[in-house]
Amino acid sequence: MKPKSQSAFVETESGLAAQFRAVREMTESLAVGLSAEDCMVQSMPDASPTKWHLAHTTWFWETFVLTPHLQGYKLLDPEYRNFFNSYYNAVGDRPQRDMRGVFSRPSMDDVYAYREHVDQYVQELLRNDLPNGLADVITLGLNHEQQHQELIVTDIKHGLWSNPLRPAYDESAVSENGQPPSRPQWLEYGEGVFLIGHEGDGFAFDNETPRHKVYVDDFKLASRLITNAEYMQFILDGGYRRPELWLSEGWDTVRTNNWRAPLYWERNDKDDVWMNYTAQGMRPVGLDEPVCHVSYFEADAFARWAGDRLPSEAEWEVAAAKPFQRQPLEGNFLESGNYHPQSASHEGRDADTVLQQMFGDCWEWTRSSYEPYPGYKPAGGALGEYNGKFMCNQYVLRGGSCATPQSHIRPTYRNFFPAGARWQFSGIRLAKDVV
To answer: How much is the pTM?
Structure first.
C-alpha cells in the first residue's frame, strides 16, 4: 500500500485547499491495510492507536480552525472536545494517555464519519477569503498531521511487533538494497561563527527559531550512517556488557530492560542469525542497512566504543547547509513506501565528497539537549503548548526518517525524544574533533 505523494506546501488559499486534501488522504492511506482491531492497539504508553491518530488530527482542525473561524459551525459530538485532546491544557481535560487503546467507542466507522464531517467544513472555509493569521494556523495543522502520519507508522509497527505472530504492516513494502555502501569517509568542516535556525517565508515550527549565531570548532562528520554490520561488531565485542561504555542512566536502562541489541532484533539461536522485525514482518538483519531503532544511550555508547562521538545539532546543521555542499532534500521518505531504512548505496552519490543519508532513512541522534534557542518565545494560547513545554530531559534528532513525509522535513527541523526512546526510526552518524 504505497502512500500517495504529498507535494511541497504552497502559500495561496487554493493551494492550501489542495494541500489539505492531499495530507488528509495520505493519512487515511496509511490505515488502508489495517483492521479495526489493528487500529485499536496501543502497545505502550508512548504509542497511540491508529484510530486515535485519525481522530486527534481531525480534532485539531475542528478545535483550532472550524470552531473559532467558521461562523455557525456546530461540533459533530461535543464529547470529542476533550476525548481526542492530546496535551493542550488550555483546551480542557483529556483521558489518560496510556488508556487510549482501551476505548472501543467511538468505532472506526464513527471516526471516519468524523473525518468526513470536518473535512467538508474545512474545505468550505478554504473556498473563501481567510481572516488574517488563519493561513498560518492551517499550515501548522498540515504539518501537525504529517507528524501524526509518521507516528501512525512507528506506533503500528511497535503494536504489530508486540503480537507474538509478528504480522506484517505491509507485505508489499520494498526491502531490497543495491550494492553494499562504501567505507565511510570523514568530511572536515572548519571552525567559525555560523547562523543556524530557520529564516525566510517558508513554514517552520517555533522551536526552530529564532535564527542565531553559534560558534562551531573544527570537526569531522561521517559520510553516512552506521550500518547493521558495524553495529553488530559493537555487540560481538560485548558492547551491551561493558559498563565503561555507557552513561550511568544508560547502563541502568540496559540492565533493567535486558537490552542486548537494537529494538526489533531477535536472535534465532537455532540458525545462529539475527532477525529483524520490519514492515514486511520478520526477516534476517540486512547488514548493509543503517542500524535503526537505537536509543540515545546506545548511540552514545557505540560512539564511545568507536573512539568517536555524536555530532552536536549545530554541527549537523552546518554540514547540512554548507554552501558548496548543500544537501538536496532527497532520500528514503514515507512516500517511497519502504517504511524501512535502505543502504547508502541507494542514493547513488560519491561518498568521498558528499554526505549521504542526511535526510530520510533514520533520524540521527545528536549530543545536544533539547532546549530553547536564544530569544525563543512560544506563541500565546493553546498552540503555544506545541513545542516549548517539552524542553526538558530530551535530546535532539535531525534529518527525518523513512516514515517522515518528504515535504515535512528541512535542515533546521528539530525532533526530540527522551534518551531511552527507541521505537522511532532513530540511527547513528558519528562525528569527531579535529586534532
So the answer is: 0.93
